[in-house]
Design goal:
The chain is of the alpha+beta class. It contains 3 helices and 11 strands. The relative contact order is 0.14.
Length: 169
């Protein structure tokens, strides 16, 4: 019998350079042009194609993209009559950048603007991160953050957590 760390999904094998494991969470998106959106995620944000499921007429039925472990995006064709989220609709995907957000912005900004793409300047947050907000070509909000360790903020957060601790814990 094989044992594995119960806190992590078991890896069954590697495909296209990516570990295959039961995904604990992923974003599923519909779009009118699967190939174009998948290409933008690769070029602008550094995602890679893990798997592409062929469909009728050569158009993909599903593209599985991964940027880092547990950063999976599934893109599939929009069904007739389905609406793509409007900009500002409240839908967002938040991911740890895993790199300097300024470098991520530079890579994304080097591409031509297509669709509803928008890149906001990186900002430092009061919760000790540096983050950037990017709209994909369909208008979905993506937030990439990187840790930022400011001793004063860290101290204030530690004090806030202590004050919020449940009795007896």
């Amino acid at each position: 019998m094989t044992t594995y760390d119960q806190s992590e999904p078991p890896v069954s094998h590697v495909h296209n350079g990516f570990e295959v494991y039961p995904m604990p969470m992923f974003a599923a998106m519909e779009t009118p042009d699967v190939d174009a959106l998948a290409q933008w995620y690769q070029d602008a944000l550094g995602f890679g194609i893990m798997f592409k499921m062929p469909g009728p007429g050569g158009q993909p039925t599903l593209v599985h993209l991964r940027r880092r472990k547990y950063q999976d995006v599934l893109i599939r064709p929009a069904q007739p009559g389905s609406a793509i989220p409007e900009v500002g609709s409240g839908w967002s995907l938040c991911l740890q950048a895993g790199e300097d957000v300024d470098q991520l912005v530079a890579r994304a900004a080097a591409l031509p603007v297509i669709g509803k793409t928008r890149i906001e300047p990186p900002t430092d947050t009061p919760w000790n991160t540096r983050q950037v907000r990017i709209l994909d070509p369909d208008g979905r909000l993506l937030v990439f953050s990187q840790p930022r360790f400011v001793p004063e903020l860290t101290k204030r957060w530690r004090e806030a957590f202590e004050a919020d601790r449940a009795p007896g814990s």
